Amino acid sequence: MKASRNDICPCGSEKKYKKCCWNWREKWAAGIDKYECDQDIKDIIRGTYNFITEHDYRGGCHTISAIMHILLTEKGFNSVVRLGEVQIDGMTFDHSWIDLDGKVIDIAIMNTLQDGIKIPPVIFGKSVSTGKQVEYRYGVSQNIDETAQRVLNMSIGNYLMGGVEQGTLAIMRIIAENANISFASIEETVRNYSRVYRLKSVAPV
Ligand SMILES: [Zn+2]
Question: What is the pLDDT of residues 50-102, one digit of tens each?
């Protein structure tokens, strides 16, 4: 999301950027807070959002979705992690997200690796900025690259334990703390997911 202050906001709200997502930190947090869902789910989403915002954590969709999946599962929710190509405004890229009861939860999308491009998080298929269903296409094709294929072949537990990225367990600790979830041992909890895999999400044939 890159716009000038007086442009119409790219989030689809039809407001001017300066009156909308220019102030994305507060606006999107408020959008999460007013969303009606189970408080535990909201705490996990807010905890993730706060981590990404405070640490300017870019990309990291594979890590964020793995962590959210474990936290949601530990709280008794039936989530799966999906991996596939996503198409947003003509951009197509490999991505991981949460599927909860068939609906997309995608917080990592807010801080992409493309410098300066910020996209409102998606909760249950809706943009936290507009509150409307997003038109992004999740799982648009078969063509994930080699890196994404490696992530797909690795269990969620091993991904987080395996040091694919530096400090993933430390990230999980912060997000869990933000969401008021405590574990006797994070390592042991994560190890319980060493046979849980992402699902490849592809376009309907
Ligand atoms: Zn906006």
Answer: 999 999 998 899 999 999 999 999 999 999 999 999 998 888 999 999 999 99
Distance from the CA of 186 to the center of ligand 1, in angstroms?
Answer: 37
Beta bridge partners of 137: 87
Average pLDDT over residues 35-52: 96
pLDDT digits (tens, 9 = 90+) for 111-151: 887 766 789 999 999 999 999 999 999 999 888 999 999 99
Instruction: Assign 3-class secondary structure to the chain.
Output: CCCCCCCECCCCCCCEHHHCHHHHHHHHHHHHHHCCCCHHHHHHHHHHHHHHHHHCCCCCHHHHHHHHHHHHHHCCCCEEEEEEEEEECCEEEEEEEEEECCEEEECHHHCCCCCCCCCCCEECCEECCCCCECCCEECCCCCCCHHHHHHHHCCHHHHHHCCCCCCHHHHHHHHHHHCCCCCCCHHHHHHCCCCCCCEEECCCC
Distance from the alpha carbon of residue 15 to the mean position of ligand 1, in angstroms: 7
Looking at CATH, the fold of the domain delimited by 32-200 is given as Atu2299-like (3.10.550)
- Tell me the residues surrounding ligand 1 (ion) with CB < 5 Å: 9, 11, 13, 20-21, 129
